[in-house]
């Protein structure tokens, strides 16, 4: 298995690519905030459930592995995690037909930037952990 095939790295790369594409869409929304009849757009977030769908266990049944007697055993589950799903409301449309709200777009840009930075930090840490595991630190 190549190091690029590690699932966590693949998921983080997907998240970073999504954040980059979303930044382009949000910038386009801001640039067209005064264009008549322009409709604001956004990208649907990649779902973690889709990435692990090929695994043998569902996400809500993940358990910890106790490899030595000192480890805390499994039994932890993620039941009810889907209750935090959010729904998206409709856009307001101005008389000119434009649906872009600059305040909303700026909040989305800031949120997107934080998600990208978190994904890059996790990616860097994951690579560092792999290097330590291989004894290359």
Automatic annotation (TrEMBL):
Gene Ontology, cellular component aspect: bacterial-type flagellum basal body, rod
Start and end residues of each Flagellar basal body rod protein N-terminal domain: 16-39
Keyword presence, Lipid metabolism: no
Single GO biological process annotation from the record: bacterial-type flagellum-dependent cell motility
Main location: other
Organism: Undibacter mobilis
Keywords: Bacterial flagellum, Cell projection, Cilium, Flagellum
Function recorded in the entry: Structural component of flagellum, the bacterial motility apparatus. Part of the rod structure of flagellar basal body.
Subunit-level organization: The basal body constitutes a major portion of the flagellar organelle and consists of a number of rings mounted on a central rod.
Lineage: Bacteria, Pseudomonadati, Pseudomonadota, Alphaproteobacteria, Hyphomicrobiales
InterPro entries per the UniProt record, alphabetical: Flag_bb_rod_N (IPR001444), FlgB (IPR006300)
Protein name as it appears in the record: Flagellar basal body rod protein FlgB
